[in-house]
Amino acid sequence: MNRDLSGWFRALVASCGLTVLALPGCSIKRFAINRLGDALAESGATYASDNDPQLVRDALPFALKLVESLLEQSPRHRGLLLAAAGGFTQYAFAFVEQDADETQDHDVAASAALRVRARRLLLRARDYGLRGLETEHEGFARRLHADRAAALRDASIDDVPFLYWTAAAWGAAVAAGKDDPDLLADLPLVEGLIRRALELKPDFDHGAIHEFLISYEGGRTEAMGGSIERARLHFEQAMRLSEGKRAQPLLSLAETVAVRLQDRKEFEALLRRALKIDPDVRPEWRLANLVAQRRARWLLSRADLLFAE
Question: Do 161 and 135 contact (CB within 8 A), yes or no?
Fold first, then answer.
């Protein structure tokens, strides 16, 4: 046996506890899967800092299916469950839904099919998020429906990433399936998840929860419980926590509040601010900013359709 491999194998056996024969319940295969799962779960920074959105778009389906195949072997691996919840949400939002939007003007049927696909991917992401929460809170999904307040009270700060991605996926699925009354009925559950995340860690991921709440508050009328004032407050917090270096808060305010108020001047000003952000200033947000800037250009090209003269 190669000397380096021999040393690795001994370390592997030692980590399982003396010898494999001494502890037959310790599976080398499971250990290796979990180690690979740990590595995959932490590899998101590689994608996030990429400067080629198309390359990432092409690579993500394989990466996501690999995560799913590992989850079949290690179904309670929290890192893999979080990677699946976040990965499917971002793929559906950044690529599939954007395709649906860009296709709508010239091919309504194709756009509708893409929205159905996006909704399915988002619900898959939601289910992985709920599974992640259930690893620490048995029966969480069932209890969330039965007694939302009690289920959410049990969530801790360690659950915030799962609370956030589950809410993000679920909320986006509701938005993509507005004609589905069952999904619309889930909106209070989405709000409960994101409010609990905000309560536990308001500065999570440099304002990601506030980014979510800009759209959530600004995209609903006051009669539906929304609030332009609260949307603006969340916008200020998101910009503060990201030091103005993330484009998405600007897009969220433009697409919800500015369009609702039919304020074209604010709409265009927000999107131009987003386009001025240098994606290389914060490499860990490079891909997200490039994707957002593409959407900003597309939104600017549609201003005549979004605003009445």
Answer: no
